[in-house]
Amino acid sequence: MMKNSIVVVGICCLVSNAFAQQTLKDTMKVDVAEVVVKDQAEKMSFMRLRNVEADAIYASKKSEVIVLSDINANTASNNARQIFSKVAGLNIFENEGAGLQLGIGGRGLNPNRVSNFNTRQNGYDISADALGYPESYYTPATDLVERIEIVRGAASLQYGTQFGGFINFKLKKAKETNGLQLSQKNTMASFGLFTSSTSLAYHKKKWNTYHFYQYKQGSSWRAYSNFNQHTYFGNFEYTINAKSKIKFEQTYMYYLAQQPGGLTDAQFANDPSQVYRTRNWFEVKWALSAITYDYSINSSWKINNKFFYLNAERNALGILGFINRADPMKERDLLTDQYNNFGNETRLLHTFQYNSLPSTFIIGARYYQGNTYRQQGLANANTTGNKNDFQFLNPESLDYSDFAFPSKNIALFSEFLFNINPRWSITPGLRYEIINTQAKGFYNDIQRNLAGTIIYKNRIDDNRNSSRNFALAGLGVSFKPTENNEIYVNISQNYRSINFNDMRVLNPNLIVDPNLKDESGMSMDIGFRGSRSTLITYDFTFFLLKYNDRIGTLLKSDTSTYQIYRYRTNVADSRNIGLESFVETDIVQWFKKDAKFKLKYFVNIAFINAIYLEGEDLSIKGNLVEYVPELNFKTGLQVKRSNFSGSLQYTYLTQQFADASNATETSNAVGGIIPAYSVVDLSMDYTWKKLSISAGINNVLNELYFTRRADGYPGPGILPSDPRTYYVGLQYSINN
């Protein structure tokens, strides 16, 4: 780490030198500055969102943009460690190497299925239930994505109730050249992974259409981990006239995966590849539709209108019991969810003159109606086999629970961007939320003896209704000391509602407090970012995340069986503070400006201190918040010359805890330490005429590590990450 520290200091010196050499002759014209900053960011392969982008305001906010065409990564397996390497402070769950699901969290928030971000695709929701169950079982295939846009906590004003921020996958579309565009990419990787991606696009005059299909199959390095996945995306866009256009999009995704389950600490230390759950399966079906209408009233007034609808389901089948107990080879647990949600989001954007400078305001409204139907019981026959049979044993009288979770959300929001003068701007914002969540159904109160036999069972009908309304406010301030450098401050309120459907899962590893409360708080950013020509770009941010009534997990012991289990409750208030830093420079450019050969170096460091404050459970005061490495370090080199590019990346995270109790180890492995780990990745790409070849090695040094302890599916227990893997891909493209 000493060498890494020296490198960081050296880069910081370069930043200071670059800033010092900015001269007074820098132009202060706002429109020129915007164009220059964008151009430089694109050339440096690291971008941030412009002050006003499409139908939203991002001024004075911490934002990042990942341009997929300019990175070297294993896109066939959606390798998030490589794809998100330049986004500071992200913690990533790496428990399956095929990229079937994405798990990322920032600034000390749980990475599980991106549930702490408002997750979108082309600007509309893709999570299971954005209000009641904001987990993303579907993530767009990386080969389909053009760029990924990320905005941190201040996104709460425009995108709703969350603490992590906003993440948007902007998908590819037909290039604006007449004719047919075809691409076929096949990739083979270790452990039988095969991915085939086909895209077909067509653009002519007012029509633009793009279609993408991907098939993926394979297994993991552990037995009983076979899977197959199908993904389709279709886009139809028609330009009605110079002022308006309409777009229809349809997404389908299906996958079936066998899950080898978790391990105890002793089992992982002995052999991370071993398997103690051979009968666990997971199935997801996803159908997502969206219609977008854009209309320009005139040069200063624009309307964006999005309708979206989700019809999806997921089925989890297996043994939820403690991993330190053998599979009893009896009926398995079956948990099924059905999601039927729709919504509309309408935005009106207006540009106007303030102090003879362009300014902008946006006003919008959102209506969302969600309905999640969840059932849990024993599975149908085949009690000793390992086949997938997603049918209940007693469908008319479920063994565990049967619930409907309807929800409604109405929101009004507005933000203003005032350019006070060419150097100063302020961005105030306000959001008003009306939320209603319900739970209608029953669950069985079940008691078991030490042998696991049911000794008591009582049906309890449960009908709840919770309505609340509140306002969120925020303010951002930006100062540009020079054309290409900016100092910004932003403070915004945050809110996250509880979801009743997360409260009625019968799981011996997890018990949920029936009196959970909504979470509230605020986030603050103080940042300095900028660039100098094509030489260097940088972004340093100090942040504070104040979390009230934070929902987390404590370790408790069952009074009758003495087994350790997780207790999910409003643990306490928490405080996360940290420093995020990113620097990227082209080393060759410092010595030869017109060099065709590029050697880019980046360093990405986040220091985070997250602790629990006062709460109902005084025993955890001062404990570290779970899933927060105090040091999150990523660095890498990228070389480019002509049609060849390659990158070498190093990732290091310090140890983390898996629960608020800060237990170091438990018998069933649902709590404990996640040890520090480091990973090295190598990727290369070469293009020759219409052919492109990609190859690489992930986890070059064959590190044996894990990033997650699960209390349910796909565990329970420690979920090992992949060892060294290889991949090679071939792509053929035709553009007429």
Structural category is mainly beta
Strand content: over 45%
Task: State the assembly state of the protein chains.
Answer: single chain
Mean pLDDT rating: 88
Question: Which spans have pLDDT < 50 for at least 5 consecutive residues?
Answer: 1-44
SS summary, helix count: 5
Shape: globular
- Could you tell me the CATH topology label: Maltoporin, Chain A
Pick out its properties:
mainly beta; 5-stranded mixed sheet; single chain; 5 helices; 55% strand; 22-stranded antiparallel barrel; Maltoporin, Chain A; 736 residues
Protein architecture, described:
This protein is mostly beta strands and 736 residues long. The chain has one domain: Beta Barrel (Maltoporin, Chain A).
Q: Can you give me a brief rundown of this structure?
A:
This protein is mainly beta.
